[in-house]
Task: structure prediction
Amino acid sequence: MHCAVSVTEQGQGTETIIAQIVSEQLGVETGQVKVTTGDTDTTPSGGATWACRGAGTGGETALRAGRKLRDQILSLASQILQTDAGQLALASNAVVDVASGKERMSLAEVGRIATYRPDTLPAGTDNSLTAAHHFAPTGYPFDFTNGIQGSHVEVDVETGLVRLLKHWVVEDCGRIINPLLVDEQIRGGVVQGLGAALFEECLYDETGQLTNGSLADYLVPMACEMPEIVIGHVETPTQDTILGAKGVGEAGTAAAGAAVMNAVNDALKPMGASISQTPMTPHRILWALGHV
Result:
């Protein structure tokens, strides 16, 4: 099986979830689906991946195209087997009887007949084994994820250093297709959000020259700075699509900075101090405390 889809693979697992969606529709193993993404020389043009459109839009398109192909295969198989297509289904790489689950013929055999022996089919039978589908949401161009985050921190009032102790996320990305990919996207997003809140800043000298233009000088969060990130889910499928997926790309990033800033300000409150600028560097925290 080959699926060409316009969304792009950026390390978030798009190829995996598209293969999962297609394989579920066609009754085959995920590893039997080859996915080609994001190159308009070989895939349909569809706007690529942005704002959580990978699963919500690209996944929905793959699902609908998969169902089209499923119906074509069942129609073809019904002609070969001389039975009603409604009595057939796809499962375990085969065409099976709906009532008993018994295999009637393999998908490989359907493909062989359609490709090499269409002359044996009844006149007028559609022997094509390809399907194309274009899907665009009728409302928003993507479905919003939503959730809540909390952060537990320790602030050293002598040095201004913030120690991240633990971080919690409860999110709702609609239907979860691959739990492992969802959790790791959230964790990656949280790290990005915490980095912006505590470390990352472009610094310029008096002539406007960037002074920290390499990773030797530009601070990013490392593994030793990151806390345990606990993730929970509320799964509310969107009603705008069959798949029900919303997207999770921004779910970790969006609230992480706000959560840690609120936690830092909660720690500073007994001393009558607060901070509202990011990144919350030790110098800025000491300034807020009146120590510098």
Remarks:
- The CA atoms of residues 201 and 279 lie 7 Å apart.
